[in-house]
Design brief:
The protein is mainly beta. Among the domains are: 113 residues, no CATH class; 229 residues, no CATH class. The chain has 6 helices and 40 strands. The protein has an 8-stranded antiparallel barrel. It has a 3-stranded antiparallel beta sheet with strand order 11-10-12, with no helix packed on it. Strands 30-29-31 form a 3-stranded antiparallel beta sheet, with no helix packed on it. Strand 1 and strand 2 form a beta hairpin. Helix 1 packs across helix 4 and helix 2 runs antiparallel to helix 4. The longest helix has 15 residues. It is globular.
Length: 657
């Protein structure tokens, strides 16, 4: 039976226990785990009371007993959902040892009774989830920039970050790692029970190895790096990208710790983070980043090659593959891009207000840069983009949602369509852009005032280039020839001949060409690809961002599967291949929206359509570790099957000196 099944079985046992007749009384009211009963074992009612205490619906004292004597059944220092689960296991006559360890005088129904117990460390019957590894897998996608040329880029597979389940001291909620970090005899406790349905885990991180921001070598603090860099936690190895035929190599680190919550029983999760993306101008289009194993080498995670890349400071040095790009090959921390090619200083500020397995959306609200800002209502009047009639708000451009014909009410529309204003249909009043900056601070990109700390507001930006007086303003909402994205297909422009509104108004067609054997190379005809042996030129509608930018993820409940084959379910290691382990796994898809500030390279800005919005979809495998389960996983240095300090492996599964 899997751990998840055990949790559900316990819930079923609770229903069964509620129907049992009372047992013969052999224990006093108020014994450990028995605030309401006097039997040999606690009853389901006792366990329900403990759960109500854990969620702060009542207190142990309300039943006449101190918590440490009656309700804190594992002596953790507080009553949490785990106490209710231990109580339930005892109620169903499982061989569970209870451990209420204080000495006090209790109230009985007849007499006062003094009860003294001894302190005993009891290994957990089913340890809580203490940390997790978030590992990207094939299928993740990145859309960046307003012009669509940087859309549908591949997110490398195998990139990993480590996330901790928050632990706090039982007496003051201070963050901790072990009991030794807490004062006054308090304990360091995890904040959720990952086998209890509905338990919400508070997440923090990333943890694990830190690296210098230029050389990418491991470090403990800034003193281990040169004066030109700092020691930070990274979001995977270098990321190779190419937009508009311009190659770039991006290294990304965490400016601030990520925070978030997760519900293991549903797989739903959300988080936020502040990243810095250091953008380097690539030298060769087929190698935006130095590679550790070319695509033809079929690199796999953990394979050893030598760094290969023009300008790489470690060209020819050994490297280990840490992530894989199907198009560009393996990437490794030992193969950093050349620092001289950095066009972003300490890194572009990339702020994820929300990364979630649910839905995120942002509306374009800001004026675009001149001359398109003249068509924005907030800058002197707008036009309806299909017939260029004057308007003040989107309500002046009502259209039927099925055929985009002008309307005044639903009765003017056929086929059950409604008469609506943008963004419910793609005809707005004027041209709006998504991204600005809080009080024109390039390190605070924003979609709206709600992203800024009051009294700051989200402004479109000033200046005409990265070397000007302020951030570069977003130029256009999209690269469509009629400025209408999603008129026929969501996130695609209409092109000439498709019957789109005003498809020829601005002359050029909304098509993009890519070489079939090298999609990072742009083209307009086959000969441009054939000269480089890159196949033929495939033309397609240009990608674009609609005014209402949306993304939806997919949750996946925590379950047991084989670590090296996460699609194979298991109940024990015997169900997995040799050397593999049966672990707690989830395979969610998380999504997020963000704004990309400008770089110091005009060619990158023009080719990538930045500044502008970004959208990312992470397809991932999340492996949860349980310190104390006698199985070393995730970032554990040891796991001796207990949570005892002082035996060489501490309660956080780190080796003790």
């Amino acid at each position: 039976m899997t751990r998840r099944s055990l949790a559900y079985a316990s819930a079923a046992a609770l229903a069964a226990v509620l129907t049992l007749p009372p047992t013969t009384s052999h224990a006093a009211l108020g014994d450990c785990s028995q605030p309401t009963s006097t039997g040999d074992n606690p009853t389901a009612t006792d366990c329900l009371v403990l759960l109500q205490i854990a969620v702060q619906q009542t207190t142990c004292e309300a039943f006449g007993f101190p918590a440490c004597q009656t309700c804190d059944v594992d002596s953790s220092g507080s009553v949490v959902a785990t106490d209710a689960l231990i109580c339930l296991n005892k109620a169903t006559q499982q061989p569970i040892q209870l451990n209420c360890t204080c000495t006090s005088t209790t109230v009985s129904t007849t007499t006062s009774t003094s009860i003294t117990t001894t302190t005993t460390m009891v290994p957990p019957t089913n340890p809580q989830c203490s940390r997790a590894a978030f590992i990207s897998k094939p299928g993740g996608r990145l859309d960046a920039g307003w012009n669509g040329l940087g859309h549908d880029a591949e997110v490398v597979a195998g990139a990993q970050i480590l996330i901790d389940n928050l632990k706090t001291c039982s007496n003051n909620d201070a963050e901790c790692r072990t009991d030794l970090d807490c004062s006054g005899g308090a304990t360091c406790d995890l904040n959720c029970a990952c086998d209890v349905e509905g338990s919400i885990c508070n997440l923090t991180g990333p943890s694990g190895v830190s690296r210098c921001t230029r050389s990418l070598i491991e470090c403990d603090d800034d003193g281990d790096c040169t004066a030109a860099e700092t020691c930070q936690k990274f979001f995977g190895p270098p990321l190779p990208l190419s937009a508009g035929g311009v190659p770039t190599c991006v290294t990304t680190y965490f400016q601030e710790n990520l925070t978030g919550t997760a519900d293991p029983s549903t797989g739903e999760g959300t988080g936020s983070s502040f990243l810095r993306s250091v953008v380097h101008l690539g030298i060769v289009d087929s190698k935006p980043c130095p590679v550790c194993g070319a695509p033809d080498d079929n690199p796999q995670l953990g394979d050893v090659f030598t760094c290969d890349g023009p300008g790489s400071p470690n060209h020819g040095d050994p490297c280990t593959v840490r992530a894989i790009s199907e198009e560009f090959g393996g990437v490794a921390f030992e193969c950093p891009p050349a620092p001289a090619n950095n066009v972003s200083g300490v890194g572009l500020a990339i702020i994820f207000k929300e990364v979630t397995t649910g839905t995120v959306e942002e509306q374009a609200l800001l004026p675009c840069a001149p001359p398109l800002n003249a068509q924005h209502p907030d800058t002197g009047g707008g036009i309806c983009l299909d017939d260029f009639s004057a308007c003040d708000t989107n309500a002046d451009c009502l259209r039927c949602t099925n055929d985009l014909s002008a309307c005044s009410n639903d009765g003017d529309c056929s086929g059950g369509a409604s008469c609506a204003a943008a963004p419910d249909q793609p005809i707005p009043c004027g041209i709006y852009c998504h991204c600005g900056y809080c009080d024109d601070d390039v390190d605070q990109p924003c979609f709206s005032d709600g992203d800024c700390e009051a009294p700051a507001t989200c402004e479109p930006g000033t200046g005409s280039d990265p070397g000007g007086t302020g951030p570069l303003q977003q130029l256009q909402s999209n690269g469509c020839n009629n400025f209408l994205c999603g008129e026929q297909d969501e996130n695609e422009c209409c092109s000439t001949g498709d019957g789109c509104i005003n498809a020829n108004t601005f002359g050029e067609t909304s098509l993009t060409g890519e070489c079939s054997l090298a999609t990072f190379r742009l083209c307009t005809q086959d000969s441009e690809c054939q000269v480089t042996g890159s196949g033929v030129c495939n033309l397609s509608r240009r990608s674009c961002f609609p005014e209402k930018l949306e993304a939806t993820g997919t949750p996946d409940p925590l379950h047991t599967a084989c670590m090296n084959d996460p699609d194979t379910l298991c109940t024990s290691n015997a169900d997995c291949g040799a050397g593999d382990m049966c672990v707690d796994i989830s395979q969610p898809t998380s999504v997020g929206l963000f704004c990309v500030p400008p770089t110091a390279s005009d060619s990158i800005n023009a080719a990538g359509g930045i500044p502008g919005p970004g959208r990312i979809s992470f397809a991932a495998v999340l492996v949860a570790g349980r310190c104390g389960d006698d199985q070393q996983t995730v970032d554990e240095q040891c796991d001796d099957g207990n949570l005892v300090n002082g035996d060489g492996c501490d309660q956080d599964c780190k080796i003790e000196p």
